[in-house]
């Protein structure tokens, strides 16, 4: 039995959730780090593993699997180790609703904000023509377009503000859930916590004006509880922590107002 | 044990896939038809069942569940009857990748095309002011915006053309999968077939220029095989069939060219 994981280093969002699930289950795996900055995920040798040109991808006994949420259910069903899906079927249903929300809604909003900040730093010494040439090879049309818009800094401001709106709504949703029950799906730690921790965990660091001990105490407590898990500590020891780039914040007028409020409280 | 299902009649996409799953499993259920045209899903009594104001919703022993993909996994795990998820875990992974694609990508594209055609007929005798007043009560911001744009016929043409592009790509993807294996997940009929049949089945009827026996024979065979299932026949006997509205087609220049080709072959 061999498991190989191809993932973006430093670990974030999609790569992080599969990486953490393997650690939580205690599944040994061979690591293949990819650098987004070097476009490793678009190299022919990687496209042989995952023709979609996205990370993470997991190869189990020679069979390649992709898409984080589907991989994580597969891991929980295939390997021994602590179950990461609630035994109670209603809680399991709630877990899936959270995983889907984390991926489709909140995760996309955060990635969009993040790409638009970080991707321009990936230019390195390249000209825009060179970058465009590489991006032409991105198999997924949507991905190709959003990366190109981010490199050219042409994402419409309304689209970025919309992502900030979704992020703010997501923090509120997380706070409400954490007030109601110990973990997002219910009584036990599950793939929903793994997803949201990886997708949203950095909001507390990058966007302290919307996620902090005063405004969202239950979500902050949940985040600390998850951070204390041995698998999370192990993951953190293996990956450089991403630093908030200049200009981090929730954007626009709301950001300015929230910052002012936070400062007034401090 | 009681199961109640709230669904849009006539059945399509999201409502259809849960309805069909219950029939396939042989689960008896109490039916609550909602009319989108009458905004039944926004009435206070329904919002008590599903505060999101969306259909379908399923109430099992007093507990409300929503989101089609998560409901369907719940049904398969909770009730006896033929399993609708493959026993082979790799096939089960593939099932989830298909369900997610059907919902997030192809399903959204089809719904967008459909809304923009059908929703204006929902005006009835109402003024736009009355409609706007009702739509203000739609809990989900995205849903509210896209319905309003559809009512006002203000969805940008590029967005509609983008949905047509996704639909065309989806038919090709379906054809490729149906050439490779008997069912979408693998060797057995699964929730992936149920989803795609409900999400895409009507393409063959509404968009014959992109899905037909000449261009996509394997997908057409798969569609006939699924149509022959007793549960599908039962579902069809219980719901009026939606008729393609005037102007059905894949849109724009591509549509005209495909239609011409189809006619040339006929």
Describe this structure in words.
The structure is a homodimer of 266-residue chains. In chain A, α1 packs antiparallel against α8 (191-200), α4 (89-118) packs parallel to α6 and α4 (89-118) packs antiparallel against α7 (157-180). Chain A has twelve helices and four strands. The first copy, chain A, has a domain at 3-78: Glutaredoxin (3-Layer(aba) Sandwich), CATH 3.40.30. In chain A, 57% of the residues lie in helices and 7% in strands. Chain A is globular. In chain A, 38% of the residues are buried. In chain A, a hairpin with a 2-residue loop joins β3 and β4. The first copy, chain A, has helices at residues 13-25, 44-49, 68-78, 89-118, 128-135, 141-151, 157-180, 191-200, 203-206, 217-227, 230-238, 252-265, and strands at 3-8, 30-34, 57-60, 63-66. With 266 residues, chain A is an alpha+beta fold. Residues 248-266 of chain A have low confidence and may be disordered. Chains A and B meet through β4, α3 and α4 of A and β4, α3 and α4 of B.
């Amino acid at each position: 039995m061999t498991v190989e994981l191809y993932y973006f280093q430093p670990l974030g969002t999609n790569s992080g959730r599969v990486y953490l699930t393997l650690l939580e289950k205690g599944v040994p795996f061979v690591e293949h780090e990819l650098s987004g900055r070097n476009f490793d995920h678009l190299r022919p040798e990687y496209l042989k593993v995952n023709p979609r040109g996205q990370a993470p991808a997991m190869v189990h006994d020679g069979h390649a699997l992709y898409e984080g949420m589907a991989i994580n259910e597969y891991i929980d069903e295939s390997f021994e180790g602590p179950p990461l899906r609630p035994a109670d079927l209603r809680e399991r249903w709630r877990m899936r609703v959270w995983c889907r929300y984390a991926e489709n809604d909140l995760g996309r909003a955060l990635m969009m904000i993040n790409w638009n900040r970080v991707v321009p730093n990936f230019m390195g010494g390249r000209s825009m023509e060179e970058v465009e040439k590489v991006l032409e090879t991105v198999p997924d049309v949507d991905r190709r377009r959003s990366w190109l818009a981010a490199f050219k800094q042409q994402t419409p401001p309304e689209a970025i503000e919309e992502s900030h709106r979704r992020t703010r709504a997501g923090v509120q949703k997380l706070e409400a859930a954490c007030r109601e029950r110990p973990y997002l799906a219910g009584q036990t730690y599950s793939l929903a916590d793994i997803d949201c921790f990886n997708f949203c965990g950095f909001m507390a660091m990058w966007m302290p004006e919307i996620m902090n001990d005063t405004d969202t105490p239950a979500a902050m407590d949940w985040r600390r509880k998850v951070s204390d898990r041995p698998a999370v500590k192990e993951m953190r020891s293996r990956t450089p922590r991403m630093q908030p780039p200049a200009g981090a914040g929730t954007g626009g007028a709301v950001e300015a107002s929230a910052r002012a409020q936070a400062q007034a409280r401090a």
